[in-house]
């Protein structure tokens, strides 16, 4: 399978002191530089709750849910009273209320939503996490609160849902928004942003593979997409500077029942509040 380039966080801006630290450690020891990069790669940024999400936070029934395989608790949001449930999954450095505009539209159609703060995000405990922990959280929520009519995932959330289906999640429909694709490209771009050598990317990949017991490449979205039989709506903005639109095109090519919607001028996050995008999601879920 041909590889894509520039398939991930192309807009990542790294503070100068981190760049200097990385360079210094790479001179001292490749192992130290690898662990430094791995720590940064797995550490999300917690942002303050925006005003636009406050009503969802206040009106949701919130629960601390234990994920047994992780031995971690996450914060769960149950929003609305509809019997038919939709699972919402935020992206890296997001939170369970981030897809609020989509949630409100689904509630108006009679659905309820369940979302969560992934480990090390929002109100959930921890400082570091990785996609496998998103996936384990999704699978535990499905077991405790499913079945779900559909799921909507943004960025890493979309990648995690695709992989959760590979590991047993059952859905009728799936929507991904601004999701990444090939793991090697994501890691390569991250290491490039840190101004470290490609060797550190390879070492970091091996470090995670030893820790997780699986190849990192097996988590690439296009691989999971090829194993999914349900309808999937892939949404991406042509001007997304965080995750290039070629990711969506590549994922869509591997889906058996895929639909592709390319927007323009919305970027990586504004797309979550766009009225046309939200209407398309609502129509897709309903029909």
Automatic annotation (TrEMBL):
The keyword Hydrolase applies. InterPro entries: AB_hydrolase, AB_hydrolase_1, AB_hydrolase_fold. It holds the Pfam family Abhydrolase_6. Residues 86-208 form the AB hydrolase-1 domain. Keywords: Hydrolase. One of its GO terms (molecular function) is hydrolase activity. This is Alpha/beta hydrolase. It comes from Flavobacterium magnum.
């Amino acid at each position: 399978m041909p590889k894509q380039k520039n398939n991930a966080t192309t807009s990542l801006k790294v503070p100068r002191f981190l760049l200097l630290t990385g360079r210094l450690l790479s001179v001292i020891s490749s192992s130290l530089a690898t662990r430094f990069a791995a720590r940064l790669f797995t550490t999300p940024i917690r942002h303050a709750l925006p005003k636009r999400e406050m009503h969802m936070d206040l009106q949701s029934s919130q629960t601390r849910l234990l994920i047994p395989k992780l031995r971690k608790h996450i914060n769960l949001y149950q929003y609305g009273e509809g019997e038919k449930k939709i699972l919402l999954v935020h992206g890296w450095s997001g939170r369970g209320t981030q897809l609020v505009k989509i949630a409100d539209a689904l509630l108006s159609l009679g659905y309820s939503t369940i979302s969560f703060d992934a480990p090390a995000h929002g109100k959930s405990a921890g400082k570091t996490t990785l996609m496998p922990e998103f996936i384990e959280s999704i699978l535990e929520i499905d077991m405790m609160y499913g079945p779900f009519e559909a799921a909507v995932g943004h960025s890493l959330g979309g990648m995690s849902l695709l992989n959760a289906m590979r590991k047993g999640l059952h859905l009728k429909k799936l929507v991904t928004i601004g999701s990444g694709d090939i793991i090697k490209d994501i890691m390569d771009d991250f290491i490039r942003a840190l101004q470290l050598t490609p060797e550190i990317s390879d070492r970091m990949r091996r470090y995670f593979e030893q820790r997780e017991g699986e190849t990192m490449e097996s988590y690439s979205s296009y691989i999971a997409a090829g194993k999914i039989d349900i309808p999937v709506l892939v949404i991406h903005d042509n001007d997304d500077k965080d995750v290039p639109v070629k990711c969506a095109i590549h994922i869509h090519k591997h889906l058996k029942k895929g639909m592709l919607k390319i927007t323009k001028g919305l970027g990586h996050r504004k797309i979550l509040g766009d009225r046309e995008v939200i209407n398309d999601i609502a129509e897709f879920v309903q029909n």
